[in-house]
Automatic annotation (TrEMBL):
Keywords: ATP-binding, Cell membrane, Membrane, Nucleotide-binding, Transmembrane, Transmembrane helix, Transport. GO terms for molecular function: ABC-type oligopeptide transporter activity; ATP binding; ATP hydrolysis activity. Residues 37-318 form the ABC transmembrane type-1 domain. GO terms for cellular component: plasma membrane. The keyword Cytoplasm does not apply. Signal peptide: none annotated. It holds the Pfam family ABC_membrane. It is a multi-pass membrane protein. It comes from Anabaenopsis circularis NIES-21. This is ABC transporter, transmembrane region. Residues 352-586 form the ABC transporter domain. It is found in: Cell membrane.
Length: 593
């Protein structure tokens, strides 16, 4: 009964590996025409290796023993031609297989990147960017090392091994069977070590993912770490993850290091057996010296492919672990998909309705509870409430970053779930409190949502956003290169460029998340002026923390615990002397003090 667990685990491992390999091989389908050419070259290279020892042994018995020098010279010339042909075929196979594998791996990377781009935001809420980067870079690189660089050599060795076995059994059945006695031992040894290696390499792939996630997080937040004097703590946490990855790799290497000498020992054992038994057969006249010589050469060739295949098999365990992580990501359900009959969103007029909307990031905990709202085209809607009340969630549902749990979100009386996401978001602009700029030119950042916009349109958008003069003052103007996250621009300058980005796509619905916070008074004036132009004739939703910025809103929605508790204009809500009036009074008093 005790053996049942390991046996079942071994069967499950083999089944899982076979399934992973079968799925990986599906990437070979586009290269069906190239594969036969590569296999032909592999077969030619393997055949030339298998025929060499036979000819050398035959020359000893039939040419050297009889003093046939002309025949020997002719045979040596034939061997030279055979080996030149083999070398040429081997080179061709490596180039051809490498060409196929690198394109296969490029497609795998492309699939991972496309999957990451298409996953809903709910996936990223529970995933780390560094771990995703590790799958795209480290795991694919591990697959490349195992398959992309050695698969051609591995295929050649498989064919060589088959040819050698056939030649050995044909030349002398007794010596052939003796040489193959160690094969079951090799299979057992390889199976044993592969199970150990697979478990260890799984840990190495996981720990490198954790390490990458930690590294990405600490690099992106280095300023905060220094400001809060947390550098030493981050170093200690990184040391722990780094040590875990080191230990996992050391254990994996230790298994590999023990495996190869085991194969070498079996090689030596088989060589000694052939030498002893072959010598006996030669002395008794049951075999010629040439046959024994051929067998000794074959034994060396026989174990060389096995050693390489065994090494590849061990290395492949790391690749399988990486492929499992990759396929787990590729199998991640894209829950937020366009409906099969989804149509293009027509030109938006700007009417927005929430009809008894409920929603929760966690199904067991609702964030919005029966929300109803109506925004007429061109209205400015202010969302007011404490942190976590549901303001940002309302914005996310308008953009359809998430689907409602109940009810419906409609734009121009069209349920947003019935149209394609791209056509919906194409007509909605967004300016966040902390907008992200990207490495590239200023012009490329403004044209982020309209990459084919003309230079004239880009400059016109910048003028409307009050940032044209600043841009032209830069050393290279619109061609000035920005660093990661828009460095070295200030917060206000980044905000103005993000407004220009929204202006350029000419959205019918605009979303603002406290776009004037964290900037100086002079820049705030420019931002407010730019926003006023941007809001004109557009439906807008403004998340407001400073209530002084929403006094002109057509509607102010006060949200508490996922519900709209008050609704009206600024003046109407002040007169009600309710939650909004209390908040406004508190902020006004704080500002005056």
């Amino acid at each position: 009964m005790r053996a049942t667990g390991p046996i079942v685990a071994s069967e499950q491992l083999a089944t899982q590996q076979l399934s992973t390999l079968r799925r990986f091989l599906q990437y070979l389908r586009p290269y069906r025409k190239e594969i036969p050419i590569a296999l032909t070259l592999v077969l030619i290279g393997a055949s030339t290796q298998a025929i060499g020892p036979f000819l050398l042994g035959w020359s000893i018995d039939h040419l050297i023993a009889k003093g046939n020098l002309p025949g020997l010279l002719l045979l040596l010339g034939l061997l030279a031609l055979i080996y030149v042909l083999g070398i040429s075929a081997t080179r061709g196979q490596i180039v051809r297989v490498g060409w196929i594998m690198q394109r296969l791996l490029a497609q795998l990377r492309q699939d991972i990147f496309l999957k990451i781009q298409s996953l809903p935001l709910s996936f990223f809420d529970r995933s780390e960017a560094g771990d995703l980067m590790s799958r795209l870079l480290n795991d694919v690189n591990t697959v490349n090392q195992a398959f992309g660089q050695t698969v051609a050599q591995m295929l050649g060795n498989v064919f060589s091994l088959v040819g050698i076995v056939i030649a050995m059994l044909t030349i002398n059945l007794q010596l052939g069977l003796l040489s193959n006695l160690v094969v079951p031992l090799m299979i057992f040894t390889t199976s044993l070590f592969s199970r150990w290696a697979r478990a260890r390499f799984r840990v190495t792939r996981q720990t490198i993912g954790d390490l990458s996630a930690k590294l990405e997080e600490d690099i992106s937040s280095v300023r905060e770490a220094q400001a809060f004097n947390r550098v030493q703590v981050n170093i200690q946490e990184f040391d722990i993850l780094n040590a875990a990855n080191r230990d996992a790799n050391v254990e994996a290497v230790a298994i590999t290091a023990a495996f190869l000498p085991s194969i070498d020992f079996l090689n030596t054992l088989a060589t000694a057996g052939v030498l002893a038994f072959g010598g006996y057969l030669a002395v008794t006249g049951a075999a010629t010296v040439g046959v024994v010589t051929s067998f000794l050469l074959y034994v060396q060739q026989f174990f060389r492919p096995i050693q390489i295949l065994s090494q590849f098999y061990t290395q492949a365990q790391s690749a399988f672990a990486g492929l499992e992580r990759i396929f787990l990501l590729l199998d991640e359900p894209a829950k937020l998909q366009d409906a099969p009959d989804a149509e293009e969103m027509p030109a938006i007029q700007g009417e927005v309705r929430f009809e008894n909307v409920t929603f929760g990031y966690n199904p067991e905990q609702l964030v919005l509870k029966g929300v109803n709202l109506h925004a007429s085209p061109g209205q400015m809607i202010a969302l007011v409430g404490s942190t976590g009340s549901g303001k940002t969630t309302i914005i996310n549902l308008i953009l359809r970053f998430y689907d409602v749990s109940g009810g419906a979100v409609k734009i121009d009386n069209i349920d947003v779930r019935s149209v394609t996401q791209a056509s919906l978001r194409r007509q909605i602009g967004i300016v966040l409190q902390d907008n992200i700029l990207f490495s590239g030119t200023v012009a490329e950042n403004i044209a982020f949502g309209a990459p084919y916009a003309s230079q004239a349109d880009i400059e016109s958008a910048a003028q409307l956003a009050n940032v044209h003069e600043f841009i032209t003052s830069l050393p290279q103007g619109y061609a000035t290169q920005l660093g990661e996250r828009g460095a070295p621009l200030s917060q206000g300058q980044r905000q103005l460029i993000s407004i220009a980005r929204a202006v350029l796509i000419n959205p019918r619905i605009l979303i603002l998340d406290e776009a004037t916070s964290s900037i100086d008074t002079r820049t705030e004036t420019l931002v407010q002026s730019a926003i006023a132009r941007l809001l004109k004739n557009r439906t807008s939703f403004v998340i407001a923390h400073r209530l002084s910025t929403v006094t002109q809103a057509d509607q102010v929605l006060v949200i508490q615990q996922g519900q709209i508790v008050e609704q009206g204009t600024h003046t109407e809500l002040i007169e009600q002397q309710g939650v909004y009036a209390n908040l406004y009074s508190l902020q006004l008093g704080a500002n005056n003090s």
